[in-house]
Amino acid sequence: MRAIIAKRVDSGTPDTGEIADLAAAAGYTVVETVTQTRKADPALQFGEGKATELATRVVETDATTVIFDNRLGPYQTYNLGQLLPDGVEVIDRFTLILEIFGQRAQTRKAQLQVELAELRYELPRVEAKTSLAKRDEHPGFMGLGEYDESRERDIKAQISRINDELERIEQTEQHRRQRRRDSGFDLVALAGYTNAGKSTLLRRLSTDLEVDENESLHPDLDSTAESQDKLFTTLGTTTRRADIEPRDVLVTDTVGFISDLPHWLVESFKSTLDSVYRADLVLLVVDVSEPIDEIHEKLVTCHDTLYERNEAPIVTVLNKIDAVDDERLEETKRTLSALAPNPVAVSAKAGENIETLLERIDDELPDWEEERLVLPMTDDTMSLVSWIHDNANVDDVTYGDEDVLVSFEARPAVISRARSRASELTTPSAESAN
Fold this sequence. Notes:
By secondary structure, this protein is α/β, with parallel strands linked by helices. The protein has 4 domains: 2-101, Rossmann fold; 105-167; 184-364, P-loop containing nucleotide triphosphate hydrolases (Rossmann fold); 369-433, Ribosomal Protein S8, Chain: A, domain 1. 44% of the residues lie in helices and 19% in strands. The protein is built from 15 helices and 13 strands. The protein has helices at residues 17-25, 48-61, 74-83, 93-104, 108-135, 150-182, 198-205, 263-268, 274-277, 292-309, 326-335, 354-364, 381-391, 412-424, 428-433; strands at 2-9, 29-37, 65-68, 89-92, 185-192, 238-242, 248-253, 281-287, 314-319, 344-345, 369-376, 393-399, 403-410. A 6-stranded mixed sheet has the order 6-7-5-8-9-10, with helices on both faces. It has a 4-stranded parallel sheet with strand order 2-1-3-4, sandwiched between helices. A 3-stranded antiparallel sheet has the order 11-13-12. α1 packs parallel to α4, α4 packs antiparallel against α5 and α13 runs antiparallel to α14. The protein is elongated.
C-alpha cells in the first residue's frame, strides 16, 4: 500500500515523524509528504491550491491512500475524495490508529475495545447526518442518500453492549489481580508512550515465560525473539515475573500512549489502563533520545492521565541511554527534574543499569512486615507452613511437641491470610471435644 502523508498546521513547521511511523506500523509505504501552514479550510482542510497539488502528487506517485495527520470531518473527506483519482482512499490520523489497533487486536478484550473506539468515532458523524435529515435541509447528504435513524440507535445499543462486556472482563481481571496480591505478589505496571522500549524492558526484568493472562499474544516476548521497533506492538497487557528476591513481583506491559488522542479514543481503551491504576508501582518509561521538549510534553500528558486515578508511586525510567552521551543525559535529567525527580537511567536494549532499576523497584514497593505465628500441631499445620514458605520469606521454623513456631516476613495481605488460616487450625483434642 502506497501512501502520501498530508499535514496542516496553523503555524510553525509541520512535523510528520509520528504519523509516518504510524503509517509504517499499519503496513503502508510512504511515498510522498505534502504539508501546509495556514488556517484550516472548512471544505478541504488544505487550501484549494494545496489540495490540487496533493491530487497531482497522488497521480505522480501512484499512491493508493492519502493519510491526513489532522482530524477530517465527513464533508472534508468527501470533498478531498472528489479531487483524487477513483479508488484512492482518504483517511485521517484517528482512522489510521483504529486500523492499527484492529490489526493488533488478538484477544476478545482488545477486539471489543477496537470495536468500541470505531463506534465512538462513527456516532457523532451519524448524529450529524440524522440531524440534517430531520431538518430536511440536505436530502441525499453528500450523495449518500437519506440516512436511516435506526443506525444511530443501533450504534448506541452496541456501545452499551460492549461496555457491559468489558466491565465483566475487567471484574474477572480485578479478581485475578486480587488473588495475586493475596498470594504475596507485588504488582508493577509499565506505562509510557509507544516505542519508548517498554516491551524490551519487560524482557530484561523477566525471569520466566509469560504469565497466562488470557489477554494478549505477545510474540516479541518469546524467549528467542527480539523486541520489535514498531508502534503498538502491545495492544493488550502482558504480565511476567521479575527477579527481585525475596519478593514475588509481577510486571505488566500495557498499551502505549500516543500524542493527540481524542477523548473518545482514550475512553474506549481505559479498561486497559486499569492494570496501571491498580498496580503497587508504576514505571513510567520514556525514550531519553527524543528531543527534551518532546519528552517534557509527553511526561506532562502521562502524569495527567496517571494521577487521575492512580495512587501508587511513579518512577520515571529514562530508557535508551545507549543512544545519548553523558552530557545529554545529565541535561535531560536537569531539565525534567520537576516532573521526574530521581529517575533511573537504563538501556533495556543493552541491559545497562537493570540491576539498579530492580533495586529501586524493591525500595519503592510496599514494605514487608514481620510476623511470628504459633501453630497448633494438627493434620493441616504442615500445609499452612508450606503455604507460608511459598508466599513469604521464612526466617525460621521451630517444631515443638505440640506446636510449630514460624517466623517470617511478607506483604500485609499474606500475613493477614496466614493469621486467618492459623485461626482455623483445630487441635485433635479440640476436635474430639466438639
